[in-house]
Amino acid sequence: MLTQEANDRLTRVGPGTPMGKLLRRYWFPVSTVAALDKEPVLPVELLCEKLTLYRGEDGQLGLVGDRCPHRATPLKYGIPEAGGLRCPYHGWKFDRTGQCIQQPAEPPDSSFCQKVRIPGYPVDELGGLIWAYLGPAPAPLLPRYDLYVREDLDREIGITRLPCNWLQVMENSLDPVHLEYLHGIYMNYAQKRLGRPAVADVKHHVKIDFDVFEYGIAKRRLLEGQSEDVDDWRVGHPILFPNVLAVGDESGTPEFQIRVPVNDTETLHFWYVTEHRKPGAPPQTDIPVYEYPYADEGGRILVETIRGQDMMVWLGQGDIADRTVERLGTSDKGIILYRKLLNENIDKVERGEDPMAVVRDPARNFPMIAIPREGKAHYVVGEFVPDEDGELLTKRRELAGAQV
């Protein structure tokens, strides 16, 4: 169990908090390119900061505060222009740094605008996502992890806004043994209640282990009947520090699950799913984006899918999990290791050092950062996502590797 102080240290992400200072050393996706193409000015929230994302007429991205300081007008209704964003109320214009550069109603010789500034943060696009950095200058490089940039993949992006703290979502990824029960025994139980046959081949975990590497933690498992040369034990699949889980079979549908701390009690979850492009097929020009629900219209969590089962346990812990009453066992050593790394990197930031997995060397970032992952899946289950009409339980693919 943790003390309340220790739990707050790991879960609170606002400005000035220990975790908030750590997470501000990383880039986070705040929207998609598709969403910004549809609406060039969007309200977003990241790490307890409410902001306005926009693309100007010159094509440049900007991320500034959510309100004009003149009369507190919401800038989500602003006018995106070349060189900045203009407030719709009195026309004050702000450049990408948040500096006010025009005040049409002030005298031509006035220097007032030079004294007015709102927050302005670096923003970039990669892999169909819009990324933001809220930390101190100089900003690190936006990591070019393989799935975002590989030219042999087609992509789709699912989005879920979860009413819970980011940490309970991430800790689930450091817990391999829940595969056996939640996505095995419980999965088959949920299918039976729907009158369907069992879909999970349930196998007991013989052992689990974790290795810290340059970009995070490699999670490994060995199931009964497997030899130690199986990829899931020999290679495993990684958690990219601090907030990304890499899952899926390299030969099938590798994906990233990106957990973005919106605030203390909300998490924006991106399901970044890829599949190998068929030989001779043209390159993908548009990345499909869809909302992935965690509950039906009546509020019941959709526990018949892998994703729904995970979201059930994340949300079931409350808006912020109370770790003062938990009882961890030996199978929770991955969670213990992850918390240790978080605390160690909080301390590094306090000492003025870069935390782990921050990328500053262009030679390490280009053409991409290759992430080792298993090459042969050990589970095959049916996964369901919404279709174009928003209907649930439309089978899009047999998703190999129920590793979560």
In short:
By secondary structure, the chain is α+β, with helices and mostly antiparallel strands.
User: Helices and strands: which structural class?
Assistant: alpha+beta
In CATH, what is the class of the largest domain? Alpha Beta
Summarize the amount of helix as a percent range. Answer: 10-25%
Mean pLDDT, nearest integer? 91
Please state the overall shape, judged from the principal axes of the Cα atoms. Answer: globular
Order of helices and strands: HHEHEEEEEEEEEHEHHEEHEEEEEHHHEE
Count of structural domains? 2
Percent in strands: 25-35%
CATH level-3 fold name of the largest domain: Naphthalene 1,2-dioxygenase Alpha Subunit, Chain A, domain 1
Q: Strand count, sense and closure of the main sheet?
A: 8 strands, mixed
Low-confidence stretches: 376-404
Q: Can you count the beta strands? A: 20
Strand order, sheet with most strands: 12-13-14-15-16-17-11-18
C-alpha end-to-end distance: 23 Å
Keywords, separated by commas or semicolons:
disordered C terminus; four-stranded antiparallel β-sheet; alpha+beta; eight-stranded mixed β-sheet; 10 helices; 21% helix; Naphthalene 1,2-dioxygenase Alpha Subunit, Chain A, domain 1; 2 domains; 404 residues
Give an account of the 3D structure.
- The chain has 404 residues and is an alpha+beta fold.
- It has two domains: 34-133, Rieske Iron-sulfur Protein (3-layer Sandwich), CATH 2.102.10.10; 146-400, Naphthalene 1,2-dioxygenase Alpha Subunit, Chain A, domain 1, CATH 3.90.380.
- It has ten helices and 20 strands.
- The strands form five sheets. An eight-stranded mixed beta sheet has the order 12-13-14-15-16-17-11-18. It has a four-stranded antiparallel beta sheet with strand order 5-6-7-8, with no helix packed on it. A three-stranded antiparallel beta sheet has the order 1-10-9.
- Strand 19 (380-385) and strand 20 (394-400) form a beta hairpin.
- It is globular.
